[in-house]
Amino acid sequence: MCLQDLDEIVDSFLREVRQIDGYLPPTSVVTDDDLGATALASLELLIRLVGGLPIPERLEGISTDVGQRRARQNVPLESVLRGVRMDFRILWPAMLRRVPPEVLPGFTEEAVRIWEAVEYHVIRVHAGYLDESAVMAQERQHERGRLVGRLLSSNGEDTQLLSQTARALGVRSDSAFQVALAPADNARRFRAAAEDANALRSLHEREDLLLLIAELPRTQDLQSPRWLHDVPCIVAPIARTLAEVPRAYAIAREILAAFESGIDETVTLRGAWGRIAARRMGDVGDALAREVLDNVSANEGKRLAETLWVYFETGSVTTSAELLYCHRNTVINRLSRFHQLTGFDPNKPVDAAMIQMALQHRQNVQHDR
């Protein structure tokens, strides 16, 4: 009898479900036709399950289909399940009205069969929704990766690409961004630190690297996130807009290339510029290294180079002596000795820059060998 009056029962369901916030237009994309067709198929399935009637092939996957469709339509899961469980409130009174009084007591004892049928439907709707949500998440992740890849290989001037990437990442294209890289050896630690900082969404996999593109707070004083300085990674100069991210990424890759043996601390452009410059000098670097260092013997050169690096880093004879565990006069004597052997004075900024380039180039060459 319920199957014969199915249209009437569906109308009752539609009147009820329209009361669920966020389920129907204008706040939802689910149309009346869509909702009506789904309700018709779902209620017929439930009636057949309760009555032990044959299930047509067209109804076999309806529960899963409902969950998948509502997920695609971005209907909140809570609203979907409330709507599905409402089937019991619709079917139970509909059946009671069609049961003769003399068999009503026996029929009420079978109410559990209606609830079991509804739960059967709910479980499969729920599973379909979750499965489709997972598929959608993978699709979004794939699309994010595709757009990020296009952005990084661009010159940052394609406004449409910038807009699409910003939407996919959930950021503003005119925000500032911190770009950072972690090679494979440091990826696990980098990911754990990003998770602790609630920055997992800003991570992207690029070949064998983990790439961070983190939107920074809109403040006048732009600073790198503090957590980045606690893990081994390459921290690029801050990109002032999304359009500058490709340039920041290219700089980060070049910094990383200068540390072929790996990194064990946070590396910035400030700390890596010498290595990068020396790598770019080529034959000029060979000539500079010979001009500055050829008059220093190998045995003496190692001790002098160590002192020079510490002195250039600290700018202080006293601090250098403390770090080298020697007397400050020893540092002064070594700097003078280098000046005497080479003619380049470590205390003169121009000479100091040339000495650093020569030392860095010689170090790079020795490492490559």
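Above is the first protein from milestone M3; the second protein from the same milestone is given next.
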Amino acid sequence: MKCRELHFVRFSFVLLCFLYKVLSLCYCKLTCKEGHSGPTYESMQAVFDLQPFRPAVNLSNPTITNISFTLYAVLGVNEKTQILTTFLWLRLYWQHEFLVWQPDECDGVTRISLPVRQLWSPDIIVYEFVDDDVSQACPYVYVNHTGHIRWDRMLRLVSACNLEIFSFPFDVQNCTFTFGSYMVSPALTFEEMSGNSKRYLEASGEWELVDILGETSILQFGIDEWDIITFWVVIKRRPVLYVVNLLIPSSFLMLIDILSFYLPPHSVDRASFKMTLILGYTVFLLIMNDLLPSTANGTPIIGIYFSVCLALMVISLLETVIITNVLHHSTMKYQEVPNWFEGSNSRCNRFLVISPITILLPGIAALPELQQICQYLGDLRAHLTSLQKESELQGQWCHIGYVLDFLLFRIYLLLISCYALVIISMWCVWISQS
């Protein structure tokens, strides 16, 4: 019984002391001593002792926190984990009703700095936060004589963001920052925040700030209501690095593949050249794979572009294989050309055929030597006829090969042109929309 009474006495004493300090602050302003600039330490110590409590004389009056931020840098975008890392300059304002003094009584001092850990500070929650804040903390706040407090703090914000990479490297990302507290409102207009951020983010990094939009709303948690400010930070990627390192080299390799069709197929091993080109393009893709973003949700169109370019090179190699097969078709046991094709003179003729003529005078008996000569001439004529037929077949198949090569090359050019127009038009639309 005595123990309970002792605890009750102690609790009553602490409560009375607290009420005394509150009443003294309610009816007395901070005092200053002659020869000192600003309020005295003794008068501020009573305020420091009330650090856990909201600084309001009447607790029914809300303490509204005004918030603004400046987007200083985009530190990283991780498409695989859907994480955006930014660096913000966060500025908070609120009213401290106990930190009030008269400048005339305090040597004209209108503003002082105090340690933030000694004062009550509002709880600001960022709902998209997914990691600890490791930025350097600002230990002081600025207080003017009316009790208005300004706290500038640096914030390394690691937030979740739904990143769309389909239009990479011409992609535009829209990430949400949601700041919540019991009573919070924006200190600046969203246009002013956007303008301040653009001045710092304009000439640095891979990302460019497009705009900062926002709205205020109330979030209901059961019987509790929280004020929230939702910011939409729209950033656009600067694509020059990826255009120079990815698109232009790929376009050059595709151009070389197109120009390789002008190599004469009957005298140059065009297939070996194209196989070497495909091997070089594959090595290029392996080297540049680290520059491409990757997510489980989808593939960027530039990855599809590279895959289609590789497929077109393979199609080009297959076309060369077909032409090479046609050009060497005549060596396969003198196969005849199809009936729908009529042979003509060709650049591939390599033989000059001479038809021998044997003349035997009538009435003269053929000597054995002459009969042997005639037999030799007959064999020579049969051989030359065979060579002439082979030469004609080679010329006809060569002509077929050149016609097919011309036709397939035009089809290949049409296919590449349509593909390039589709890709360029899609990227132009994205650039214009951003």
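Note on the second protein: Residues 242-433 form one domain.
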